[in-house]
Amino acid sequence: MVADQAALRRAADALAGAKGPVAVDTERASGYRYSQRAYLVQLRREGAGTWLVDPIALGGRLDPLVQALDGTEWVLHAASQDLPCLAELGLRPGVLFDTELAGRLAGFDRVALGTLVERLLGFRLEKGHGAADWSRRPLPADWLTYAALDVELLVQLRDVLETELERQGKLAWALEEFEAVRTAPLPRPRTDPWRRTSGIHRVRNQRQLALVRALWEARDAVARDRDIAPGRVLPDSALMEAAARNPANEAELLALPVFRGRSQRRMSGVWMNALRKAGALAKSELPEPAGQHDGPPPPNRWADKDPDAAARLAATRAALATIAEANTLPVENLLLPDLVRRTCWQPPADLSPESVATVLRDGGARSWQIDLTLEALTKALAATAPPPAPPSGPASPSGPAN
């Protein structure tokens, strides 16, 4: 364990003096805390052993570690989940190898860490604490063992997967994917995140949507201030019931099942204030029934809205499925589904391979993806394109000839 600056310097010296890739993992407290910060960082390097770093005890100051790992190759499993919280600590890989993504590209149908380790290395990892509250202190010894095991075999797994990818001729693809993950911008906040409240799909009334929004925003503010997962402040089911019932006063609110508890009684003023503010909104201030989207509508509506686009999407999906099967790839790793939908909904005007390639590249497709899909995608888009309109010109004369 690394919980003070002296231990951090020892860890940094050991890791800097070792060789080869560094296995990295983090433990967060999702479901318990509002933040997605790392509550433990696990590191292992051949010749240095395993170090479990407590960034909370260290106040987030990991400068010696940042310097020791600068420019090294990191091995993570499902790296996109861990990189944001590592970046908060100033930790960023110089080179990345993602064992989960490698497993997908290699064609394995199950790519959980334990599954890949057992299948490719013959070891079974002890599991059981992945959903634990890692903000707890002190951390129990069996939790620390679990955390250490997550990096124990990562480098060996990396080596086996690299060999398999090279055998399949996919290593260059994987390296391009890893670099895209490594350099991806941090996730942006969602637009109207309150619309993801469980059960909101049953709400159609704009006033009721305003009540949901107000309660969600009040809950989010409380959760953020206390660093508690929002669902532990007030579950979605209670939020939805309060919005549906729209109680007129605190007595009516406290009569609802979840709000009868002691903690909710103390918070009743917060919830009633949110409900009253939403109830006083002018009609023009109410949220729209459907959120604003910057992309195409859901595909199940395409046939009604744009039959040509629906035909393009069906043809494109069929072509991509064939390519994915031939290359033993998940079709979603061949091209992002969102990029496929956007391209089919609004394809380039001339449908030339050059124009389609530009659309794919601007949408984030990597070179290997474009190389594999461009020809088939261009043909699918062209085959379902509507026929050109007849040229317009002067009307032909009518009536009897003079």
TrEMBL record:
<feature type="compositionally biased region" description="Pro residues">
    <location>
        <begin position="385"/>
        <end position="394"/>
    </location>
</feature>
<dbReference type="GO" id="GO:0008408">
    <property type="term" value="F:3'-5' exonuclease activity"/>
</dbReference>
<dbReference type="GO" id="GO:0000166">
    <property type="term" value="F:nucleotide binding"/>
</dbReference>
<dbReference type="InterPro" id="IPR002121">
    <property type="entry name" value="HRDC_dom"/>
</dbReference>
<dbReference type="InterPro" id="IPR002562">
    <property type="entry name" value="3'-5'_exonuclease_dom"/>
</dbReference>
<dbReference type="GO" id="GO:0003676">
    <property type="term" value="F:nucleic acid binding"/>
</dbReference>
<dbReference type="InterPro" id="IPR012337">
    <property type="entry name" value="RNaseH-like_sf"/>
</dbReference>
<dbReference type="Pfam" id="PF00570">
    <property type="entry name" value="HRDC"/>
</dbReference>
<dbReference type="GO" id="GO:0006139">
    <property type="term" value="P:nucleobase-containing compound metabolic process"/>
</dbReference>
<feature type="domain" description="HRDC">
    <location>
        <begin position="205"/>
        <end position="285"/>
    </location>
</feature>
<feature type="region of interest" description="Disordered">
    <location>
        <begin position="382"/>
        <end position="402"/>
    </location>
</feature>
<dbReference type="InterPro" id="IPR041605">
    <property type="entry name" value="Exo_C"/>
</dbReference>
<dbReference type="Pfam" id="PF18305">
    <property type="entry name" value="DNA_pol_A_exoN"/>
</dbReference>
<dbReference type="InterPro" id="IPR010997">
    <property type="entry name" value="HRDC-like_sf"/>
</dbReference>
<protein>
    <submittedName>
        <fullName>Ribonuclease D</fullName>
    </submittedName>
</protein>
<dbReference type="InterPro" id="IPR051086">
    <property type="entry name" value="RNase_D-like"/>
</dbReference>
<feature type="region of interest" description="Disordered">
    <location>
        <begin position="286"/>
        <end position="306"/>
    </location>
</feature>
<dbReference type="InterPro" id="IPR036397">
    <property type="entry name" value="RNaseH_sf"/>
</dbReference>
<dbReference type="InterPro" id="IPR044876">
    <property type="entry name" value="HRDC_dom_sf"/>
</dbReference>
<dbReference type="Pfam" id="PF01612">
    <property type="entry name" value="DNA_pol_A_exo1"/>
</dbReference>
